[in-house]
Specification:
The chain contains 13 helices and 18 strands. The protein is of the alpha/beta class. Strands 6-5-9-1-10-11-2-12 form an eight-stranded mixed beta sheet, with helices on both faces. It has a four-stranded antiparallel beta sheet with strand order 14-15-16-17, with helices on one face. A hairpin with a 2-residue loop joins strand 7 and strand 8.
Length: 456
């Protein structure tokens, strides 16, 4: 079934009003960067309170270890390898040519043929808005072409030149800016301003008396690491020996993100919208080294070790989620698509089947989803990795590196830090998991790196 044919089938769902959806996505926020996930320096009181009122996941994973692939998978319900988007936009356009392997080709734009969550919800009568980071294509592929009627700040760039107004300046040999935020005051901070725009959008949407989908995709705490002076001073004074987190500017950026979450929650409550709103907070990949520390997890952004993939995930849905509940079930960002379609009572598009509906976990945090394996594919270079694929089968984790085809096998239950490679001790299991990984790569037509003819 073609995209246009599928969307033509839609009619607004019958019955009680479907829930509003607020999805707040942090950029490069690590698994242990929030107080409720064990951060020592960082203060996140609003997120900690939200976690006490919600379902918190301890084994949530991003579909990819970098931003654009995860964002594409979140909006389509498809694995990045199936989409052909396995690295960020700029990396797809200009891959390195001086390494032992030539990275796999990656699409720089999310194809219009893909049906996004915004398109599905819009066809079902939702108002839709993207506030903040897009990073899924050039102008002809901006949010307005993918189901978002409102786009404030979304461009093909992955990071702002500055976190302070006017949010423009030289970056990566070009001048970058954040459109839609021209009128501001000196000292105005990007995280605060995007939140203000989100609140204005909620007000506008609420006046329509229709359900809405707000995708608030913050740039924080992605580089450039820049904080509001008063918060920076606070964390500089908090630094003491022995802390896992040691970057006061990053800590201040995380607190500004926390404040944003609190402002949105407060606004929904004041507008009497909170009781019929699904509220989700998560991140696009693991924390970026060395500005943060993902301990006890190994490595960080770009890597397929747990530090590069595991992210915070908090879901609040009044009268559905149990307050102060925790799920240790492995889940992945592609699961949000089928979950939100089910919550909005709309059909899932054909082919968007790489995720599973999370609703059983919301109703019973101790439940298990009907799958054993999660797959990851990053056929590119990054400071933390060489090209690699991985499979997580419950507590077992296999990584296959493309440069030399070596395998690494970890028992995450006994070795959550991924320090003891068991591939040689348990070769039968390693081969079996490798075979499953190869079969999956074939099934999604995963693109692979190739030997560099200019390298011996």
């Amino acid at each position: 079934m073609q995209r246009r044919q599928f969307l033509a089938l839609f009619a607004p769902p019958l019955g009680p009003p479907p829930p509003n959806i607020v999805l707040i996505l942090a950029d490069d926020l690590g698994w242990s960067d929030l107080g409720c996930y064990g951060a020592d320096l960082h203060e996140t009181p609003r997120l900690d309170r939200l976690a006490r009122q919600s379902l918190r996941f301890t084994h949530a994973l991003s579909a990819a270890p970098v931003c654009s692939p995860t964002r594409a998978s979140l909006l389509t319900g498809k694995h990045p390898a199936r989409l052909g988007i396995t690295i960020w936009h700029e990396g797809a356009i200009d891959p390195p040519t001086n390494r032992p392997l030539l990275p796999a080709p990656s699409e720089p734009n999310l194809a219009h043929a893909e049906i996004t969550l915004a398109e599905v919800l819009q066809q079902a009568g939702y108002s839709t808005a993207l506030i903040g980071k897009w990073h899924l294509g050039v102008t002809s592929h901006y949010p307005e072409t993918q189901g978002f009627e409102v786009n404030i700040g979304g461009t093909h760039w992955g990071a702002p030149a500055s976190y302070f107004h006017p949010y423009r300046g030289p970056s990566s040999k070009e001048i970058r800016f954040v459109p839609g935020l021209q009128l501001g005051e000196p000292g105005e901070y990007l995280t605060d301003r995007l939140t203000t725009e989100a609140l204005r959008t909620i007000d506008s949407f609420a006046a329509r008396r229709k359900p809405f989908f707000l995708y608030l995709a913050h740039h924080a705490p992605h580089t450039p690491i820049a904080a509001k002076p008063e918060l920076l001073a606070k964390y500089e004074q908090k630094l003491t020996p022995g802390l896992a987190h040691k970057n006061p500017a990053y800590a201040a950026m995380v607190e500004s993100f926390d404040q944003s979450v609190g402002r949105v929650l407060d606004h929904l409550r004041i507008r009497a919208l909170d009781q019929n709103t699904i509220f989700i907070v998560t991140s696009d990949n693991g924390g970026y080294l060395p500005v943060t520390n993902n301990a006890p997890l190994r490595s960080g952004k770009g890597s397929l070790y747990e530090g590069g993939l595991r992210v915070p995930l908090i879901i609040h849905w009044p009268n559905v989620t149990t307050p102060n509940s925790v799920s240790a079930e492995p889940v992945v960002s592609t699961d949000l698509f089928p979950f939100l379609c089910a919550a909005a009572r709309v059909p899932i598009p054909p082919g968007a089947t790489d995720g599973l509906n999370l609703l059983p976990l919301l109703r019973n945090p101790a439940a298990r989803l009907p799958r054993e394996n999660l797959f990851f594919h990053y056929p590119h270079y990054y400071p933390t990795t060489t090209p690699v694929s991985a499979l997580r089968s419950r507590n077992w984790k296999l990584l296959e590196y493309f440069e030399d085809n070596h395998l690494e096998l970890y028992n995450l239950a006994k070795d959550p830090t991924e320090t003891t490679n068991l591939a040689d001790q348990d070769p039968t299991r390693a081969r079996a998991l490798r075979d499953q990984l190869h079969k999956w790569r074939e099934s999604v037509n995963a693109r692979l790196p190739i030997p560099n003819p200019n390298k011996p």
